[in-house]
């Protein structure tokens, strides 16, 4: 059974260093060839902004969604990503130390309990200043979870 | 400057076909090691013919749709709702339509469809969403 008592659970914030090599690997994986993301000098820029959705990899280094599903007693089998939203308030740059904190915002059912939706909010801060927020909605297909 | 002229009414990007190497690289780069994306048997047990493309890879392609057009750091907001799944071997067709420009920030609606490698395969909806983008780095 999904542990609904965990709604409101918030992780202890930790800091994740933004490493050029990891950003380059991420760019290779997504087909991004512009060196501006990992080599500012080559791109003729002063700084390397990370690709917007790289923030999801950053939050995984802090406390992954898979680890959160384990905490909530949601088997990964049957789980799908339903929705993802980012708000970028300021650029996150290679070399930044990003403080990340995640919380379980909501758990609700649809289709008479066949589907459970788990909503997780994440805050990203650099030097104490908010730089981004995200909201991930995870769908647990409960019939498959039991199988 | 004319706000709307700086932003084309429609932009497009095609990604894929998504290979097993792409999915393995993305698993490593993103830290999402769920075998649903890597192992055919796990995918079948979850009800899919082939490994499922990470939703976050589709999101990353969606962000590329905008950054290739408007540059690194252009994305202010990006929201993606997954209405289907893309599978290993699929080609993703991403498009965005301009809805309005406000204070230099363009609002686009996003649509992602996928086609399987098989000849004559029909396009299927994978995701819809919205984005807000600007032409300058930072907020």
Briefly, what is this?
Chain A is an alpha+beta fold and 147 residues long. Chain A has helices spanning 20-30, 40-43, 54-63, 65-71, 142-146; strands at residues 14-17, 79-88, 97-110, 115-126, 129-141.
Descriptive account of the structure:
The complex is a heterodimer of chains A (147) and B (139). With 147 residues, chain A is α+β, with helices and mostly antiparallel strands. Chain A has five helices and five strands. In chain A, strands 1-3-4-5-2 form a five-stranded antiparallel β-sheet. In chain A, 37% of the residues are buried. Chain B has one domain: Roll (Thiol Ester Dehydrase, Chain A), CATH 3.10.129. A five-stranded antiparallel β-sheet of chain B has the order 1-3-4-5-2. Chain B is elongated, with a radius of gyration of 16 Å. The chains are: A alpha+beta (147), B alpha+beta (139). Strand 2 of chain A pairs antiparallel with strand 2 of chain B.
Record the SSE blueprint.
The complex is a heterodimer of chains A (147) and B (139).
Chain A: E1 14-17, H1 20-30, H2 40-43, H3 54-63, H4 65-71, E2 79-88, E3 97-110, E4 115-126, E5 129-141, H5 142-146
Antiparallel strand pairs in A: 1-3, 2-5, 3-4, 4-5
Chain B: E1 10-15, H1 20-30, H2 40-45, H3 55-70, E2 75-82, E3 91-102, E4 105-115, E5 124-133
Antiparallel strand pairs in B: 1-3, 2-5, 3-4, 4-5
Could you give me the name of the CATH homologous superfamily of chain B? Hotdog Thioesterase
Oligomeric state of the chains present here: heterodimer
- What is the overall number of helices of chain A? 5
User: What are the low-pLDDT stretches of chain B, counting only 5+ consecutive residues below 50?
Assistant: none
The radius of gyration over CA of chain A amounts to 17 Å
User: How many individual β-strands of chain B?
Assistant: 5
Question: What's the arrangement of strands in the largest beta sheet of chain B?
Answer: 1-3-4-5-2
The tally of strands of chain A reads 5
- Rounded to the nearest angstrom, the radius of gyration of chain B is 16 Å
CATH top level of one domain in chain A? Alpha Beta
Q: Helix tally of chain B?
A: 3
CATH topology of chain B: the name is Thiol Ester Dehydrase, Chain A
* Distance, first to last CA of chain A: 13 Å
Mean pLDDT of chain A: 94
């Amino acid at each position: 059974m999904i542990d609904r008592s965990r709604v409101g659970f918030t992780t202890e914030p930790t800091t994740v260093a933004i490493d050029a090599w990891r950003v380059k690997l991420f760019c290779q994986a997504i087909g991004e060839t512009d060196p501006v993301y990992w080599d500012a000098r080559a791109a003729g820029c002063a700084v390397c902004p990370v690709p917007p959705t790289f923030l999801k990899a950053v939050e995984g280094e802090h406390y992954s969604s898979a680890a959160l599903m384990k905490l909530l007693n949601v088997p990964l089998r049957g789980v799908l990503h339903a929705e993802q939203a980012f708000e970028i308030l300021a650029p996150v740059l290679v070399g930044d130390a990003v403080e990340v904190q995640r919380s379980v915002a909501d758990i609700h059912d649809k289709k008479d309990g066949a589907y459970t939706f788990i909503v997780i909010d994440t805050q990203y801060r650099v030097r104490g200043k908010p730089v981004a927020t995200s909201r991930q909605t995870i769908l647990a297909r409960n019939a498959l979870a039991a199988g | 400057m004319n706000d709307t002229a700086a932003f084309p009414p429609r932009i497009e990007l095609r990604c894929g076909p998504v290979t097993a190497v792409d999915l393995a690289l993305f698993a490593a780069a993103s830290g999402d090691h769920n075998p649903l994306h890597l192992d055919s048997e796990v995918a079948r047990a979850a009800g899919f013919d082939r490994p499922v493309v990470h939703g976050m890879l589709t999101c990353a392609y969606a962000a590329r749709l905008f950054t290739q057009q408007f540059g690194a750091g252009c994305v202010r907001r990006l929201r993606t709702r997954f209405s289907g799944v893309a599978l290993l071997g699929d080609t993703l067709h991403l498009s965005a339509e301009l809805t309005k420009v406000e204070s230099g920030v363009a609002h686009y609606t996003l649509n992602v469809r996928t086609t399987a490698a098989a000849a004559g395969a029909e396009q299927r909806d994978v995701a819809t969403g919205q984005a807000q983008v600007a032409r300058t780095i930072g907020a």
